[in-house]
Amino acid sequence: MKYILYVILLVIFQSCASQAKPVLVDSEMETNVKENLAYYLYYPEDYLEKSDKKFPILLFLHGGGESGDSLITVKRNGPPKLIVQGKKFPFLILAPQNPDAKKWWNTRAVKQLLDSIVEGNRIDKNRIYLTGLSRGGGAAWEMAVQYPDTFAAMAVVCGMTPLPYASWINKKMPIWVFHGEKDKSIPIEESETMVAKLKEMGYEVLFTKYPKVGHSAWIKAYETEALYDWFMKQELK
């Protein structure tokens, strides 16, 4: 008798289960993602002397090879390397370090850091510049897409490009792209396709190609004195 009752209940349960509808539950969760960003901050020689003047600032994002927990590696390339060699710049330079060697830049965290530095110093908010190389170049493109009202000009060196979102970039922001034609890590087609798309939509883009250069296009790019003169001419439009 017990066995027959068990079989009947099992049949009823299976029948009900087969007729049950999927349930979509509404819910939410507040997330809290923290990022510890070490950084270098360079001040121009006359920053303290000209206490009533507001200065431009350049945000520099390094490549994958400088990621990790040793801040000194950020000095290997780009403007930080030139500063170590004695070069003087007419603007502040913020050079944060991506703390994870195998992860992309957390651009939200970088923007929070930039905002904090801008608010804590005498910065001309109409002259905030952006540059990055390799993985940092990809992050620079991303920041230009996500924060189109922040930067007055951008220079990207051999970075991966967010082609589908090209139209999100501030159309009035001048852009200068650098890439080595022999780059095997991030093929030059990344930059070529992006530049062509931007020009097609009416953007102001300069494109410098290095015929016999591989992924290290940043060496020539950041030694281009005209790049910094170009930055200094730009203001947020």
TrEMBL record:
Q: Which residues form the signal peptide?
A: 1-20
Q: Could you tell me which InterPro entries the record lists for this protein?
A: AB_hydrolase_fold, Plant_Biomass_Hydrol_Est, PLipase/COase/thioEstase
Which domain of life, per UniProt? Bacteria
**Care to name a GO molecular-function term for this sequence?**
hydrolase activity
Q: Which Pfam families match?
A: Abhydrolase_2
Provide the Phospholipase/carboxylesterase/thioesterase domain boundaries: 106-220
Question: DNA damage: present as a keyword of the record?
Answer: no
User: What is this protein's record name?
Assistant: Alpha/beta hydrolase family protein
Source organism: Maribacter arcticus
